[in-house]
Each structure stands twice: as structure tokens, then as C-alpha cells.
């Protein structure tokens, strides 16, 4: 039986998609008998890109485009072998970046 915890970091552009993925991970952990902490919402990173509309004369006319990267942190405490197996075979939606650390 593994000791310690599994730390999962999730990143996505869509907050609904990341919340749905967190719920799938929580359901899987509770079915297999492991406890969890989270999901903890981490600060949202905002990237703004400024593009000029015209090429030469109208430099003051600009468009702003933005991206928001939503992040969540989930800890699975006291995982069992069944928890690890079920997490490995879990189908997660595309568009969510998942980083897993065992510790």
C-alpha cells in the first residue's frame, strides 16, 4: 500500500471543463476509499495581447485580446493501489493539462 499523497495540478482555458475534471477525480478517489483535499483554486493567469488595427498611420487604434488560464490543485491523501490504477485508466477531457506528483 503506497504511503504519502498524490498531488494533481490542473490547468485549462475553460473553467467549466476544469471543474468537471476535478469532480471526476474526486469521484474516483472516493470510490476507491482514498480521501482528498481540495480542489483549491489557484490564481488565474491573464495574458493580454495588443495588436494594432492599421499598419502605419493609425497607431492609436488597437485591439486587445486576452487569455485566462485557470488552475486547480487537488491532493489525494492515503491512496490505495486501486486508487492509482483507477486514476491511470480514467478518461479525462481534452483541453485540460494534468500534472501528477507522487510524494
Automatic annotation (TrEMBL):
Entry GO terms, CC: ribonucleoprotein complex; ribosome
Domain Small ribosomal subunit protein uS10: 7-101
Alphabetic keyword roster: Ribonucleoprotein, Ribosomal protein
Binding partners and assembly: Part of the 30S ribosomal subunit.
Family note: Belongs to the universal ribosomal protein uS10 family.
Functional note: Involved in the binding of tRNA to the ribosomes.
Protein known as: Small ribosomal subunit protein uS10
Organism name: Candidatus Roizmanbacteria bacterium RIFCSPHIGHO2_01_FULL_39_24
Record gene name: rpsJ
